[in-house]
Design a protein that fits this description.
Number of domains: 2
Shape: elongated
Structural class: mainly alpha
Distance between the termini: 101 Å
Number of strands: 0
Strand content: under 5%
Number of helices: 8
Largest sheet: none
Oligomer: single chain
Length: 174
């Protein structure tokens, strides 16, 4: 048995067909407009601002490479997708947040290590590090490792602790 369409379904299908035809006409007009623009510019290279590149790249990514190759675009599909790739790379680039050099050691850690070094002159680097672990459980490994020891003072004095500025621990703590 065949089903009959009620008037509401028929009206919706007619409206959808009309809207689809209207969209297809709009696409064909824009493609023809692109061809005319390309004919006027000839081989001359079009210059786009960063904002224009950004807008085109976002729209191009949604369409995809296959659809872009079917269309007559002003810019090559590979170029559009390359712009989008660079846009995403900029978005997730953390270079603005980074600082040059080694991160600073918290003052609490510096003072503790200097105190251990002054109170226990015979302790080495490893022992001071182990004791600071017990005292500062929340200090990260990297932070503890950043306070370094010099092998020997230029004057031949015994091993001493140096802070990040190069001053000896005894002069820094006083």
């Amino acid at each position: 048995m065949g089903r009959t369409l009620d008037p509401l379904q028929f009206m919706l299908m007619a409206m959808a067909g009309w809207m689809n035809e209207r969209q297809q006409q709009l696409i064909e007009y824009l493609q023809e407009e692109n061809r005319v623009l390309r004919e006027q510019t000839g081989k001359q290279r079009l210059r786009f601002s960063d904002d224009q590149r950004r807008r085109l790249a976002v729209k191009a990514k949604v369409l995809g490479r296959k659809t872009l190759t079917e269309l007559d675009t002003l810019v090559m599909p590979d170029t559009l997708l390359n712009w989008h790739r660079k846009l995403i790379a900029e978005k997730y680039d953390g270079s603005a947040k980074r600082r040059p050099g080694r991160p600073q050691v918290r003052e609490e850690v510096q003072l503790l290590v200097v105190r251990f070094a002054k109170e226990n002159r015979t302790w080495g680097y490893r022992r001071i590090q182990g004791r600071s672990v017990k005292k500062l459980k929340r200090a990260g490994d990297k932070e503890r490792m950043m306070v370094r020891f010099d092998e020997e003072e230029p004057s031949g004095a015994p091993v001493s602790l140096r802070d990040r500025d190069g001053q000896s621990a005894t002069s820094a703590a006083e």
